[in-house]
Amino acid sequence: MSDETVPLLEVRNLVKHYREASGARVRALDDVSLTVRRGEVVGIVGESGCGKTTLGRTIMRLVEPTSGEIRVDGVDFASLSGAKLKAARRRVQMVFQDPFGSLNPRHKVGVIIAEPLVVHGVPGAKARVAELLDLVGLPGEAAGRYPHEFSGGQRQRIAIARALALDPALIIADEPVSALDVSIQSQIINLIGSLRARLGLSMIFISHDLSVVRHVSDRVGVMYFGKLVELAPTSALFERPRHPYTSALLASVPRPVKDVVREKRAGAGLVAAAPGEIPDPANPPPGCAYAARCPLAEPRCREAVPPLAAVETGHEAACWRSGEVAAREPITSA
Amino acid sequence: MTRLPETSPTEPILSVEGLSLDLRGTPLVEDVSFSIAPGEMLGLVGESGCGKSVTALSIMRLLPTPPIAISGGRILFEGTDLAGLPEAQMRRLRGRRMGMIFQEPMTALNPVFTIGSQIAEPLRIHEGLSERAALERAAELLARVGLPSPRTQLARYPHQLSGGQRQRVMIAMALACGPRLLVADEPTTALDVTVQAQILALVDGLRRDMGLACLLITHDLGVVAEICERVCVMYAGRIVEAGPIADALGAPRHRYTRALVETIPLSNPPGRPLPSIPGNVPPPGARPRGCAFADRCSAALDRCRAETPPWTMDGARGFACWNPA
Ligand SMILES: Nc1ncnc2c1ncn2[C@@H]1O[C@H](COP(=O)(O)OP(=O)(O)OP(=O)(O)O)[C@@H](O)[C@H]1O
Ligand SMILES: Nc1ncnc2c1ncn2[C@@H]1O[C@H](COP(=O)(O)OP(=O)(O)OP(=O)(O)O)[C@@H](O)[C@H]1O
Ligand SMILES: [Mg+2]
Ligand SMILES: [Mg+2]
């Protein structure tokens, strides 16, 4: 099933419109195209409401796309049905933000982790559960306990074990550390890194925290208002952003404590803040959605939507003036 | 008792001394002390459940009592101890001299009243302004917090605004009567990073221009380092380290502060494993004897599990650790 030349995941021209109670149409995803290669982690960042979760859920087919193609191992899910669809779905699993809400409180952890195995009729569930618990760093006796007996970080380990049960090729992790305490986040980030090394996992890692995304991803996609506005290898994106919104995001991220301490002078101001707010999704402006906040905007930006186009090998940006984007202050490692 | 040296010669506006809070006999916050001078922004950081919000609510005397009560210590605001002040006097202070902004503005805004009437109300009650004059002031305040076309906004309802706009309205309400103290509890956690930067710049500007004393509560060390002069780091209900940013975060002595600063992805090169802190934060009621961090600490001594470490000064910074870095 896995031909090495075919990308693991290929998303083409994905569109998802929601209809609100008022009748207004929300363009949650607007022509998004993206590939994930085998063994690769692609980070997705963007402000609240820009469509990150919708992207993940649509790839999982938890939400039906309005149009567009999603291919896993070269196979379009829409062309499958019945047993074939069920088998194909095993290849992609999801981990959610809220490690409590996503675990059934009335079931023991062993039952929760075994559930996908049972649904897909995989034998030997008990041994597999023990193996999975070990893999995510939990003791075997955890199988006999209930979710509420575990801390947030441990619950996220349980959710990850469940997502791994069917040996998926791709994990979609939607804000997997955002609800965790700061001192626990690094444990889970490290777990994800070690699972990746041991199992060759591919992943879409959704987060609003740029420093976390930078830490775990090979490539990063930046979303704004339902569109992918920039996609690049992680270091290129952080060092040479080519979309003004990416540049504003980088400038808004608090800098490493050491850098701040070093540079802190009495009376020094804060980092530059990008002015303005995100447009109303039911009322999108013509042209580039970022134009109203963009320091580089010129008349054509308000008229025509810039396409996502290559600016360098492997680096794409959707901006008419991508050549003039300043790098501002990328967050630098210590 | 945790004590923070005065870095500023002026009298502090707020001085919390040995504050303890209980939840039906279970200690939530123990022996917390700090002070804030006019025009100063003090950061209070710590992980979920360590007691930041209940500390803030106790200063405003907005604790849900029962079940939570002040069990010890003093809260001196411009010299008056708020800990035992009658509610009628407290209400006057809250509206005029002290303002608070919360993480989720929708909880503080009333959905059925317009923005204008909500900002104007305290101005009519406390300042005795006419309806017209109060609305005029409300529009000025909205302009002050950077809301576009303030006059139009007066007639809008909270749900018609974005999260960042609602947060600006709440700041305008907190500032309406010219307070001396602003308590901001995670004012930007629900916002996106670019909007977060706008709101923090706004609060920072107000502090400078109006000489406000600000208490900024957050779990984000990067934000505190960027915007505050001094910081108090809380762990499991106690302040474990406090002092100027350059000392307390730049070269922490307490093992918890040090571990926290080292584990955040921001401080580490991408792609490599992060240093991490094993274990979990103990909830109130399950906090161990001695230092509450001892079970997770790589440098814990036997003594750490037996006796609460005393507050120790090192220059302008203080910490409570038996085996400091
Ligand atoms: N079931 C739904 N019905 C109508 N609109 C929806 C629905 N789900 C999402 N939306 C809208 O689609 C847009 C994208 O939402 P989505 O949840 O994908 O954003 P997000 O980037 O994940 O945001 P966050 O960072 O807040 O999680 C938003 O405007 C949202 O209000
Ligand atoms: N109304 C309440 N009733 C019972 N317990 C409460 C109440 N409010 C807070 N607590 C408890 O008091 C402790 C401190 O809570 P607090 O809200 O101050 O934490 P925090 O530091 O603000 O955390 P967070 O970062 O999650 O906001 C927690 O263990 C919490 O469960
Ligand atoms: Mg989401
Ligand atoms: Mg709180």
TrEMBL record, chain A:
Localization annotation: Cell inner membrane
Signal sequence: where? none
Q: What SUPFAM superfamilies does the database record attribute to this sequence? A: P-loop containing nucleoside triphosphate hydrolases (SSF52540)
Q: Which GO terms describe its molecular function?
A: ATP binding; ATP hydrolysis activity
**Its topology with respect to the membrane?**
Peripheral membrane protein
**Keywords per UniProt:** ATP-binding, Nucleotide-binding, Transport
Q: Give yes or no: UniProt keyword NADP.
A: no
The protein here is known as: ABC transporter ATP-binding protein
Organism, per UniProt?
A: Salinarimonas ramus
Automatic annotation (TrEMBL), chain B:
Q: How the protein sits in the membrane?
A: Peripheral membrane protein
Keywords (alphabetical) are:
ATP-binding, Cell membrane, Membrane, Nucleotide-binding, Transport
Source domain of life is Bacteria
SUPFAM superfamilies under this entry?
Answer: P-loop containing nucleoside triphosphate hydrolases
GO CC entries: plasma membrane
Describe the location of the ABC transporter domain by residue ranges.
Answer: 14-261
List, in alphabetical order, the GO biological process terms annotated in this UniProt record. Answer: peptide transport; transmembrane transport
Q: Where in the cell is it found?
A: Cell inner membrane
Q: Which GO terms describe its molecular function?
A: ATP binding; ATP hydrolysis activity
Per its UniProt record, what Pfam families does this chain match? ABC_tran, oligo_HPY
Q: Which family does it belong to?
A: Belongs to the ABC transporter superfamily.
Q: What is this protein called?
A: ABC transporter ATP-binding protein
Source species: Salinarimonas ramus
Show the taxonomic lineage.
Answer: Bacteria, Pseudomonadati, Pseudomonadota, Alphaproteobacteria, Hyphomicrobiales
